[in-house]
Fold each of these.
Amino acid sequence: MSDKTAEPRVAPRAKSRVELVRGLGVWDGVLLTVGSVIGTGICLVSSDIAKVLPHGGMLLLVWLAGGLLSLTGALTYAELGAMFPRAGGIYHFLKEAYGPLPGFLYGWACFLVMMSGGIAAIAVGFGEYLGAFFPFSSTSNVLVSQTIGSWTWILSGVQVMAVAAILVLTAVNHFGLKQGAAVQNLMTVLKIGAILAVAVLGFLVPAKSTLGLTAPLPASGLLAAFGIAMIAALWTYDGWYGLTFSAGEMKNPGRSLPLGLIGGTAIITGLYLLINFVYLRAMPVEKMANESRIGEAAAALLLGPVAGQWLAAAVVVSTFGCLAATILYSSRIYQPMAEDGLFFRALSRIDPVTHVPARSLWAQSLWAVVLTLSGSYSQLYTYSVLVTLLFHVLAGAAVFVLRRSRPAAPRPYRVWGYPLVPIAFLAAMAVLLINTVVERPVESLLGLGLVALGLPAYVWLRRSNPRPER
């Protein structure tokens, strides 16, 4: 027998895996939710609603109903987000409830059109409002015009400023979650402050018009008009679900994610109602229908022309903040997809220094830049309306599917008012889905065609990227 004591065998050390940092608290979640939603719509959409529903009381009811329906969605997604507290949000809800194909198709549509096109649209909106202060950022400032066959490509100052905004905010987010969240939080606090300031001052000065809350209702067509107005309002609330994509970076997501979703949506609803009360104090609802930039017009009428310019500046800040929030949360979709072998493998890498999905972040933003420069983002984004609603229906129904298929799974938060609240959300999304098919049949078919393009991509990715063992 050897006199040497046998040394214990040590297993090879596993390569450490870089993870996202859980650095977002409840306050960050609330601000990210608010920042994801409030952009230019708060100063524009009331005019569109007034055109189809010229009644002060019904206009306010539309905004309240839109907020309550968005809240049913927030309550529903809060259960799913707390159940799957990982980066990716709706991608995980669909994958876990129905399998990898629906999850992939959602992520594919997000990258191709829904999120990237949304980033392009918000960035161009930012550039257009910036043009009120800097003439360079104007659609009339054409820098390049090139005719290619029957198509003319135009590069304007608006597009240049939009691209610059996308790249700057992407770079900020590249340096870390803390930096990206700090910029987004600052922009959101400023926009909330600006809206509250206008609301408070708007109530302190004498009204220029009666609210018209008890005016006689239209004799016919009220229900149809209310439905059309609701579509406009609900799209202005779009983005309330953005926090679910950052669930993998939430501290104590079982508590902070539901509070961030629900609290943020409640604040948005309150702000929309407040500002619309101010609009009605500034002018009759019939006149609102003729003011495309209702926010600036109302502020100028109540508080003077300087206030109108000040509100326009606030919209620039608001839109920049909305862009910051959208870039932050939507870039979290593709990294888990790539990790699951359902997207380009290179995008699965998390930067070991900044702990952000840097490649996913830049891939998304560079494609958004292409859409911005091509000028095609608006048309593509229109095609995605039906697709977005379809995935919301499937994701909302996942609550019922998973309660039946995984009854014993941990649920740190259970949706309040189950099953009525999720049913209300599903019903609202289904009605909007049907209305979109009826009103925009060609765009709806083209949107489904864009999603269908993902089917061969899915087959190829599944074959070439087998999921690695963990």
Amino acid sequence: LLGDALDLLAREHVDVVLLDLSLPDSFGLDTLARVKAARPLVPVVVLTRTKDEVLALEALRRGAQDYLVKGGGDGDLVRRAIRYAIERSRVEVALRLSEDRFRAVFQNAGVGVVLSEAEGRIVQANPAFCSMIGYAEAEVVGRSFRDFSHPEDAARADALRAEMRAGGRDSYNLTKRYLARDGRVVWGRPTVTAVRGSDSDGSEVRVAVTVVEDVTERQRLEDHMRLAATVFENSGDGLFVTDDHCNIVHVNPAFTEITGFDPEDVLGKTPKVLSSGRHDHEFYERMWESLRDSGKCQGEMWD
């Protein structure tokens, strides 16, 4: 009885179901449908007396792994069909698990992940990338990366993608600007990797996987550091920098001009090399107290 079989399927691990479509309590493709509804991933081999090509094709369309007619072959045929069904089911389960893992990583990744065709047309984009540029996925899919790239950066990215398509490289990365929906310029560092295959020699790019890290804040800090370095080097005031042990690690040109000390004379030493001896211990204590309390001190001293 089908009812007993469904109870067994609910309780036990089953590798394959050998199913007759004509049972006392069920008949035809409804029998197959009830088994597949109960255990969608268990392979089903239909074994029936009905030799009907239309019925066989419909059974396969509805999820049967194979359709065998009783008396149409020997026992080896049935055994081979069962072995094949089990192996195929295992491959399908493994593929489904792999796809589920990829989908989980794709959707929840903290960086942008985009799947695109070889020419750059976007097929799928994850929430992190869409949030980065301010578009919904439906507004991104079907469009080219060029549509969201800063005009000054598009040509370089196109050249690298063309080189990858031609087989000159399997991946590349660069730093480029994206144009967000609200007009912001977003700095990103995309790493693009080709997935090849499908042609005779396996060199054709089937899809490109692009992982985009938002480096806008890093770029801003680097710009500020370059600006600070420019100010430091070109200031008319003598400047020096110490580490947390008070060892001098950098001096600017004005420092050398004012004090006469070349960088190699003072690097690795403490500011005591400038001490004139005209200030007592209490003077330096007050200076350090001000540094500790307010983070700075200001005044005059003899050097």
Amino acid sequence: MIRADNAVVRFWIFALGQFFIWIVVPSIVFRNLPLDVVEGLGWGHGWPSGTYKHPPLQAWILELAAIIGGRHDSAIYAAGAGSLLLTYWALWRFGRMVVAPPVALVGVMALASCFYFATTIPEFNPNVVQMPLYVLCGWLFWRGVQNDRLYDWLLFGFCAGLGMLGKYSFAFMLLSIGGFILIDAKARAALRRPGPYLALIVGVAVFAPHFAWMVQHNWLPLHYAQSRTHYADGIVMALAQAAKFFLGQMLAIFPVLLVLWLARTRSGSGVQLAKDASLRRYLTFLAWGPVALIVLLSAVTGAQMRDMWGMGLWVFIGLWAAERWRSDWDRSALARGVLLLAMLAMPVAVWLGASHSVSFGFRPWRTEFPGRQLAAEAEAFWREQTRGTPLKIVLGDSWYGGNIAWYAPSIRPQLMINGNAAYSPWVAYADVARHGALAVWDPDGGGAATPDWALRLGQITAIKTVTLPYGNKQIRARLAVVGRKAQ
């Protein structure tokens, strides 16, 4: 069996390798940032307390990456890779509390065979943000129960608050921990001490500013979520929909379970199981609780759940399976081979998908979009019409407008999403009147006529249509100068 010191070295080789792979691969392969990243950068530039879709943590992290990285796409990919590295590190630390280091290593490394922990990482969205916070909360809560140190409880509360700022579905993780407290005597005993209540106070304090923002903005993200949710017609369809989501999740984590099952041992020789029955029970709640709650919610309400929403929910499945099956790398060359094959296949799949999707008969990926060319054309048109005035405000959707806002060659303008101050509170209508703005829209997808939201914000002084190559076709973007005349 792998010695403990060797396990530490192997962990860091693995974790840092994954970190660099998921910076380098998208930096080389992708011509354009993914959709969710472009959208998040459009939000983050205004440092919002909330957005009309999600809480603000993803946008804040992306803005920090943009500031630190100097608007290089590689710095943005580092945000996702950094989240993955933090996830693995926290899992490693928690896993060493559960089992011996060699078994913890197996449980952590096996996750790299799941596409949730690989190909989706460059699309840094709220699902990716949740991943390290899930693990940190799970680990810190158990440290609080085990050691009753106030700083563990305070850190748990802080990470729980951040988790809710990452995505509202983080509540399923906290509910799973709450369910564990209800059934486990050791966890309930912690409620007789001040630590859990300090954690609650800290978590509420972290989330409170965003909660106040939601109240002031008429619960805008919840209305958006409601408008995008589809419901099944009848209980049979609701159950079928819930089953479909669950089966999709099983398919996603199948490679992880396969690797760990292949590495299983029948005897306990040298393989330490979790000695604490409460800890083993807790690990089961962490691994399966959030998914079980989502499946139950879907079955009861009929709400359709998207498979990708499970992305952050499976961070503990490797440790759970490795502990149950006493997985050991040294017992199975086949398990090591399957994992290595999966890890090699992930970046190859990204390269093939991004560079050859059209050759395979599919639509070009968003990462092939000509965002830089669009931004250059847009800024050149603006400067030509305004005699060199800097472009400060872009009006448009999160994709066309967001690409111009990120890739603009000179200063980075603010994005006012579809000219709506409620969706973009960091830009006021008075700012458009003062500085003017460049409107952009897709004349093929949104209509050739100038949108009402652009007409309402000021006089249209010039219009231009830009045609750019995108995969095996061409796209058009219509540009308009709003509220500012040539001098």
Amino acid sequence: MFVPFTAPGDRILARIESRRGDGLVATLVEVITPGSGRADPPCPHFGRCGGCTLQHLEPAAQAVWKSEILAEALARAGLGDVPCAPLVSLPPGQRRRAVFAWSARRGTARIGFNARASHTLIDLETCPLLAPALPSVLAPLRQLLAELVPEGRGDVTVTATEGGLDLLIEGEARLDLFGRETLARFAETADLARLHWRLPGGGGAEPIARRRPALVRFGAVAVEPPPGAFLQPSREGEAAIAAAVLAALDGCGGKLADLYAGCGSFTLPIAQRQRGAVHAVEGEAAPLGALAAAARAGGLTVTTETRDLARRPLTPSELAPYAAVVLDPPRAGAASQAAELARPADRRGGPGVVVMVSCAPATLARDLRLLRDGGWQIEHAMPIDQFPWSAHLEAVAVARRRDG
């Protein structure tokens, strides 16, 4: 029986609502006797907002539960013998990037996160997950959207950078001259680094204001990502992952490949540490352009390739020049690329080490099983919790070729 907002040891009254697979889903009605791991939620929105699900648990209870997530995913994939390192936990209040939903109607606007299991918008007052700069812009954003959009809804991505806040607003409204001037004034009064607007459905983002470079640092190299680009949610989490990746690559000579490279969060630290050639592969051109520009400015030997790795993974012959491969795929994982890595190595060589970074333990375990079935030894996995109070978990796993 699945009962949200409960803790181990709770004695509760619950109402059964529906079936889920072989189990039942219930709603918590009352905590009759609390368990030892229960805590008071620090956020007034907890229970309604869909962003957090674990604020009612003590940190120690959360750590135990999150450590089990990775171990259980590996066991389900037949990898129960893989050693798991102790959980690396990062505190809340460090998240530098968030995507907020917004809606405007009749001269008022709301902005925040969707309610749990709903499209209802929770008008955010505070959020203990976020770095302080992010919620500080919400009140002026409400005023802006109420003035700019008579009726509509969309998203706004807010990123804290070295130059200040970087905003990408997405909405149905088509901007006229007055709208662009209104946005430009907002960028000035809110002291933003950059402001872009984009219609829903993707496509290019229209630059409204660029008052300062919106820089982030990967290692010692400054990068200006394209608007809305993926970043690890916190600098501290990114540093913990990068340290685990670099430790796994220690002693790997020759060329290295970073697949699903994004803007270079691992490519650039690897190139700095290894002082050798790194080939970065990513499906989108804009992040690669930012990565390449930063590598040139830093004097690093980095080559780039725009390629959809889900449809066109690197083959064994293409992988032959590389001593090691790093993969940081989206939640869907890297099954196609893992299958190619699992194929027999080219006679000329091929990678002896694979480092996988993942935000989805289930797909990570699936991809690691493909490697093991292809002759790789899964050396260890490390859970990294940079998503406090949620069921999300980052992990880094290291595999070495048995015949290497």
